[in-house]
Amino acid sequence: MSLQRPAPRPGVLQIQAYVPGKSSAPGVEKIYKLSSNETPLGASPKAIEAYLAAAATLHDYPDGSATRLREAIGHTFGLDPARIICGAGSDELLNLLAHAYLGPNDEAIHTLHGFLVYRIATLASGGTPIVVPEKNYTADADQILGAVTARTRLVFLANPNNPTGTYLPFDELKRLHAGIPPDVLLVIDAAYAEYVRRNDYEAGIELVATCDNVVMCRTFSKIHGLAALRLGWLYGPVHVVDALNRIRGPFNVNTPAIAAGAAAMEDTAHVQMSAEHNARWLGFLTEEIGKLGLAVTPSVANFVLIHFPQTKGHTAAEADAFLTARGLILRQVSAYHLPHALRCSVGSEEANRLVVQSLAEFLDRKA
Ligand SMILES: Cc1ncc(COP(=O)(O)O)c(C=O)c1O
User: How far apart are the first and last CA of the chain?
Assistant: First the structure.
C-alpha cells in the first residue's frame, strides 16, 4: 500500500459526526422515544394519504422545483413562492448555505449551545466556526455582535434554540440584525416556530421580507410529523435562493415528500391540534419536573432541558440509564456542552406522566 492516500479537505476530520437521538432500549418492550423532538401525534392523515398516492408515480423523477409544495407554503404564509427553496430536511438547507457562502478563512458564528449542524456545516465547507457564550442558556445578541469580524460571512441562530428551548424576542432579533454588516447573512433557523406562544416572538418572515441579508429555515420534521421524509424549506431574498438553487441537487426533494408536505401545510387543523397538545404538556413537564427539585430551562419549543445535580446517584448519566431501563428515551446533550442535562421531548400524555413519575422514583433512590 502506498503511504499516500486521498485526504479530505481541511476541517472535515475536525468534525464529530452527528449522533442522532437513541431510538431503542435493549430488553425493554415498550419504548417512548423522547430523544428527537418528533411529534407524538404523528403526521396529518391527509399527508399520509398524499404520500401513499405518490406511490403511483415512483418511476418518474420528482418536480425538481417542488412547485406544488412551494405554492402551498406560499399560500399558507402569504409568501412569494419564488423566494422559497425546499430541501431534504432543513439540515440540507443549512449545509447548502454553508457551501454557498463559506470558504477557507471565512467565519460562521453560532452560540455555545446552538444546534450542532451549524458547526458541522461550517467545518465541512472549510470555514471556521466561531462559538460565542450564551446568557442563561439563551443566545445573546451582544456576544454575537462582538464576535463579528471582517471574515464573518454567516451568523447561525436557532430561534427557538435546540436543545435549550429558549428564544430571542423579535426586538432583540431586530437589534441583532441591525448590528450585522450588510454582507453577512443572518440565518434564522425557526424549526420550532409553530410551537411558540409568545407575543414578542416572530419567526423571521418580516425580517426576510424587508432585508437582503436574512434567511429563515423551517422544517416539516417537527409539528408536521414528517421527519422520515426529510423535508424543510427556506424563505430568503431572491439572490440567496438563486445561489442555493445553483448548488443543490437537481431533485433534492422527492415526490412523496412534496405531496405529503403540501397536504400537511394545508392541514392547519392538524397543526393547531399539535400546538395545543404541546402547550398543555410543555407546561405540565416544566412544572412537575420543577416541583421535583430539578431545574428546567423555560422552553417555548416541544422539549425541555432538565438539569441534574452532580451528586453520585443523581447525575444526568444515571438518570438516563434509569429512564432508558423503563423505556423512556431522552437525549444526552454533552455534545452541546451540557453534560449535566438531558433533553426530553414533549410526548403523549402517557409518556409525559411516566417521565415525571420515573424522575420522582429516580430522585427518591438512595445514592
Ligand atoms: C434547530 C434545528 N434546526 C434544524 C433541525 C433539522 O431539521 P430537519 O429534520 O428539517 O433536517 C433540527 C432538528 O432537530 C433542529 O433542532
Answer: 54
Show Cβ contacts of residue 364 under 8 Å, excluding neighbours closer than 6 positions. none
Q: Which of 159, 162, 124 is nearest to 140 (CA)?
A: 159
Spell out the residues 6+ positions from residue 275 whose beta carbon is closer than 8 angstroms to its own: 194, 195, 197, 223
**Relative to the CA of 222, which ligand 1 atom is closest?**
9
Atom of ligand 1 nearest to the CA of 220: 10
All 3 cell numbers of residue 182?
450588510
Q: What grid cell was written down for 198? A: 409568545
> CA separation (Å) from 365 to 288, 317, 322, 341?
18, 15, 11, 19
pLDDT of residue 57: 97
Which helix (DSSP H) or strand (DSSP E) does residue 328 occupy?
A: strand 328-329
Q: Is 148 in the pocket of ligand 1 (CB under 6 A)?
A: no
Phi, psi of 49 (to 5 degrees): -60, -45
Q: What pLDDT shows up at residue 18?
A: 85
Cα–Cα separations (whole angstroms), residue 264 to 49, 69, 205, 220: 10, 10, 20, 8
Q: For the chain, how many residues are written?
A: 367
Ligand 1 centroid–CA 162 distance in Å is 8
Q: What is the pLDDT of residue 24?
A: 81
Q: Is the distance from the beta carbon of residue 324 to the nearest atom of ligand 1 less than 6 Å?
A: no
Average pLDDT per 10 consecutive residues for the chain, totaling 367 residues: 85 88 84 96 98 98 98 98 98 98 97 97 97 98 98 98 98 98 98 98 97 98 98 98 98 98 98 98 98 98 98 96 96 96 98 98 85
Q: The pTM is what?
A: 0.96
Biggest distance spanned by C-alpha atoms of the chain: 64
